[in-house]
Write a structure and sequence with these properties.
- The chain is α/β, with parallel strands linked by helices and 349 residues long.
- The chain is 47% helix and 11% strand.
- The protein has 16 helices and nine strands.
- The strands form two sheets. A six-stranded mixed beta sheet has the order 1-2-3-5-7-9, with helices on both faces. The chain has a three-stranded parallel beta sheet with strand order 4-6-8.
- Helix 2 packs across helix 15, helix 11 packs antiparallel against helix 12 and helix 13 packs antiparallel against helix 14.
- The longest helix has 18 residues.
Length: 349
């Protein structure tokens, strides 16, 4: 009998959640999100559980995101299964965000999309030299969800907007700079760290200090001022104009990257972060993101992006519209509009 895609159990006084879908880089399915939610609800008021530890099996990465192929197959039809996935996943994200017990996420390896939704709400977020963080959704016509509107909009110097639009991949030192990671531990010491946390969960903060390594200098720091200046513009088009006017090697590289992204998604992400930055609480942000998700999975750019990047792998998507200026306000308004009251997202009761 094969093992489940996510393993939940109690060890000592620690509730353990282990992502166990290594062949897909632990990409999340609806069932995985449900199983994690069930475990967290069971442990929430259980005095025998003092802390929750989230990690993954194997060595290939923490979590690469969601099950994109399923989303695209559903989006090409009636979109029901895609909406169900977002609904369940976002409830899990919200549950973790407001969870009353300490959570530890071991971000050893690829941490993207859905993996960010699992790790970022945790009190302790441990990166290693193998950590690669990204919100790469604009490259497939999706958007930086799972709370991206909340977290990315609250980063200093428009760094979150830069991450959202470009899908840039960053390493552990940059994750610490942006508070995506709270601690850095060498991957070789992770098994020892986990054993120590399970033995003494009440000492987790002290243990992380004892195991702390040196992630090195954040590469992002050398471009922080440039990002703060160029990504401060009030529209995607204005950001592109600012990058063109800057005329630096770095700005030209950003323009090349942005030219590969879905223009519709660039403008969706821009508005998403504007609204997320003004949201009064995390639930309001997630309701907004669900409205977006429920619609974009059935739109041309997502289906085309998945075809080009994941299915055919020709990396030559034909975006429609082809430029940001051609994405009109009416299209964006329709994507962000409230859903019928019986279809809106809501947190767990």
């Amino acid at each position: 009998m094969s093992e489940p895609d996510v393993i939940t159990r109690i060890e000592g006084r620690v509730g353990r959640i282990t992502l166990n879908r290594p062949q897909a880089l632990h990409a999340l399915t609806t069932d995985m999100c449900r199983r994690m939610t069930e475990a967290l609800l069971a442990w929430r008021d259980d005095p025998a559980v003092a802390l929750v530890l989230i990690d993954h099996s194997g060595e290939r990465g923490f979590c690469a995101g969601g099950d994109i192929r399923m989303l695209a197959e559903s989006g090409a039809g009636d979109g029901r299964l895609a909406r169900e996935f977002f609904f369940v996943e976002y409830r899990l994200n919200h549950l973790l965000f407001n969870y009353p017990k300490p959570r530890v996420a071991i971000m050893d390896g690829v941490t993207m999309g859905g993996g960010v939704g699992l790790s970022r709400p945790c009190r302790f977020r441990v990166a290693t030299e193998r950590t690669t963080f990204a919100m790469p959704e604009t490259g497939i016509g999706l958007f930086p969800d799972v709370g991206g509107g909340w977290y990315l909009s609250r980063m200093p110097d428009h760094l979150g907007l830069w991450l959202a639009l470009t899908g840039a991949r960053i390493k552990a030192a940059d994750c610490e700079l942006l508070q995506l990671a709270t601690d850095y531990v060498e991957s070789a010491r992770i098994p020892e760290l986990k054993a120590a946390i399970i033995a003494e969960p009440e000492r987790t903060e002290a243990l992380l200090t004892e195991f702390e390594g040196d992630a090195g200098r954040p590469a992002l720091a050398q471009h922080q001022d440039e990002i703060a200046r160029l990504f401060a513009a009030d529209s995607v088009e204005a950001i592109i104009s600012a990058l063109e006017a800057a005329g630096t090697d770095w700005s030209r590289e950003q323009l090349k990257v942005l030219a590969t992204k879905s223009p519709q998604t660039l403008k969706v992400a821009f508005r998403q972060l504007q609204l997320g930055g003004r949201a009064k609480d995390f639930a309001e942000n997630m309701a907004m993101e669900y409205r977006i998700g429920a619609r974009v999975v059935q739109r041309h750019d997502f289906l085309e992006g998945v075809r080009a990047v994941i299915v055919d792998k020709d990396n030559a998507p034909k975006w429609d519209p082809p430029t940001p200026s051609a994405v009109d306000a009416a299209t964006l308004d329709a994507i962000f509009a409230p859903l019928p009251s019986d279809e809106e997202w809501s947190p767990l009761p």
